[in-house]
Design goal:
This protein is of the alpha+beta class. It is 18% helix and 34% strand. It has 2 domains: 8-195, D-amino Acid Aminotransferase, Chain A, domain 1, CATH 3.30.470.30; 197-321, Beta Barrel (OB fold (Dihydrolipoamide Acetyltransferase, E2P)), CATH 2.40.50.
């Protein structure tokens, strides 16, 4: 029942095309290794921390499975309304058990299984992926629980590229694993490819470098259908040699409010001590940025500047550019 370090992946630009690889969707949830030993169930995070107290609904589901002893590697996901929500997962990490219980009832979690390290009395971690996958399919074939899924897998690169093109929302890319290799716990023995998209955004504000009067990061905005400018993320990929030029250009444009919708500094998981320390700008400069993932209408991570877009009017920069979230219906299609 102890924590197991999951096998990890190296980031690559392209998927391998030679034979001998299995491809799987890279799910945008919480990595989780589920262990059951008779009446005991444990859920372990990627960092080795116990997750069971935060996901009692998943513990209950695992405890109802017909198999009595196993170790499964997978991903925790939550469908909230008509989207699959990463934020809903983070809300579960609450210290109050009563709050967790309410969230589990309101937004139940599901478990997406993609590897099997042990089944009954058989240790499978030393076996090849081909053997482990067959064991996982057999283990889950008898299950009727709608909250436990078998993650899709293919050996056809073309199909994997289709998953990559549909990434966004619940899918965070594609994972490639060698069919002839064992489970290499704690090692970067897989390959992951993540899509990189671009969006044209307004520079609605900026932050100075800490302790300096030099621009350190640009705050990005997009308009919604009502004409409100929402803060959707940032880019700090400014070359040190360019910061002086950006400072000279942006300071004359300082003018409240900057963002007329969601603004930096609001309560969210992105908030930090410096969240309120920003300068609002007239919405005049448009830049194209590259991003990898979107959560709740915002860029999950920092973006990278691709180029400026003087040819694009600020009002043309709308929220509908962002990749749509994966709906439960599409999730069921992928897992069918």
């Amino acid at each position: 029942m102890h924590a197991i370090a999951p096998m990890e992946a190296l980031l690559a630009q392209e998927l391998p095309t030679e034979p001998g690889w299995q491809f799987e969707p890279k799910w945008d949830g919480f990595r989780c290794i589920a262990v059951r030993d008779g009446g005991e169930v444990a859920l372990w995070s990627k960092s080795g921390k116990p997750l069971g107290r935060y996901f009692p609904d998943v513990v209950e589901m695992i405890g109802r499975m017909k198999a009595k002893r196993f170790v499964i590697d997978g991903e925790l996901l939550i469908a909230s309304g008509d989207t699959v929500s990463f934020d809903a997962l983070q809300l579960r990490l609450h210290p109050a058990a009563s709050r967790v219980a309410k969230l589990a009832e309101a937004t139940p979690a599901s478990f997406m299984a993609f590897d099997c390290l042990a089944s009954e009395s058989t240790i499978l971690a030393t076996e090849t992926l081909a053997v482990r996958r067959a064991a996982l399919e057999k283990l889950l074939a008898a299950e009727k629980n709608p909250g436990i899924f078998l993650s899709p897998a293919t050996t056809v690169p073309k199909k994997a590229l289709g998953w990559l093109e549909r990434s966004g929302g619940a899918l965070d890319g594609v994972i490639a694993k060698r069919l002839d290799e064992p489970y290499r716990s704690g090692e970067r023995a897989m390959i992951k490819v993540k899509p990189m998209r671009t969006a044209d955004c307004i520079v609605g504000g900026f932050r100075y470098v800490s302790g300096s009067r030099s621009v350190g990061s640009l705050l990005l905005g997009l308009y919604d259908e009502a004409g409100l400018l929402h803060h959707v993320g940032f880019t700090s990929s400014l070359a040190k040699s360019d910061r002086k030029e950006w400072t000279t250009r942006l300071e004359p444009l300082i003018e409240p409010p900057g963002f007329t919708g969601d603004a930096p500094g609001g309560p969210s998981r992105w908030s930090t001590e410096r969240s309120a320390e920003w300068q609002p700008l007239k919405p005049e400069i448009v830049i194209e940025v590259a991003y990898d993932q979107v959560t709740s209408g915002r860029f999950r991570h920092g973006t990278k500047i691709v180029r400026e877009r003087p040819d694009k009017a600020p009002r043309q920069c709308r929220c509908d550019q962002l990749a749509p979230a994966l709906t439960p219906a599409r999730l069921r299609q992928l897992t069918a």
